[in-house]
Amino acid sequence: MIEAENLTFGYTGQNKIFDRFSLHIDRGEAWSVIGPSGCGKSTLLYLLAGLKKPDAGKIVIAGNQVKRPRPETGLVLQDHGLLPWATVRENVSLGLTIRRMYGPDGCHAPSGMIIDCREAEEKVDYWMKWLGIDHLQDQFPDQLSRGQRQRTAIARTLVLEPDLLLMDEPFSALDIPIRIELQHIMVEFNRKSGLTSITVTHDIEEAVFLGRKILVLSGSCNNNACIIENDMAGKAGFRGESDFRKRCETLKNLLGSVK
Fold first, then answer.
1. 96: CATH
2. Residue 5: in which H helix or E strand, if any?
3. Spatial separation of the C-alpha atoms in residues 108 and 113, rounded to whole Å
4. Among 3, 82, 107, 226, which is disulfide-ready with 60 (CB 3.0 to 4.6 Å)?
């Protein structure tokens, strides 16, 4: 699904964040990315999304080199990115509205995609109901709680049926009960859909719960991918098991050694 080959990137006037860094992610895998502040977690996500270009090396997704944002990739940001003047339904429908406007040009929508208005409305209904915001469809973002705004942002992305979902600390601003609830929702979705997902987080427990593979980045230049296998991720009752605490402690110790 994803091949990052000899990836090199650094911001102007700063040390390199990645230098000949390579990473392989199979289709359908759920990954979490964690590391100290400034280590390149969000930068890696933006490189995969095509929002930033590597200084050297390349990223290949589904057999095609990423040179610009691809319509099959979904991105969920921490700040939601909702239009304040649009209702919940209008925000959830935004991507589909843009796709209908431009057509299946391979840029705004996948090539050959048939965009049917009735089908689009049914998709919006489905995801709003699935995420528990269908009763809020006529409200505006400033009338919603943080959790409701994040659900709206997630619905707006999932309604486009991406093959790759990138999430940049999507739950960090939420209260713990709401954060845990949304984590369970996304784990269930991953299990049912087989979607490839990558979640950037600074929270150890979140990384262990969400990622069947955990990529640990270093605060210095990243040359080699440090990956923790975590096949218990998303398992029912995992948080209450001793293995969960052990894996959290292992990740905490590893983070302490890579700063």
1. 3.40.50.300
2. strand 2-10
3. 11
4. 3
Task: Give Cα separations from 72 to 56, 155, 160, 164, 173 (angstroms).
Answer: 24, 15, 8, 7, 27
Note the helical H segments in the chain: 41-49, 88-92, 94-102, 117-130, 146-158, 176-193, 204-210, 242-258
| Number of domains, the chain | 2
Tokens standing for residue 75: 């991105």
Q: What is the pTM of this model?
A: 0.90
Closest among 215, 200, 207 to 247, alpha carbons compared: 207
> 79: Cβ–Cβ under 8 A, 6 or more apart, which residues?
none
Q: Do both 135 and 98 map to the same domain?
A: yes
Tell me the percentage of the chain whose pLDDT exceeds 70. 95
134 vs 175: CA distance, rounded Å: 22
* Model pLDDT for residues 146-169, shown as the tens digit of each residue: 889 989 999 999 999 899 999 999
Return d(Cα 215, Cα 230) in angstroms, integer.
11
Shared domain check, 168 and 257:
yes
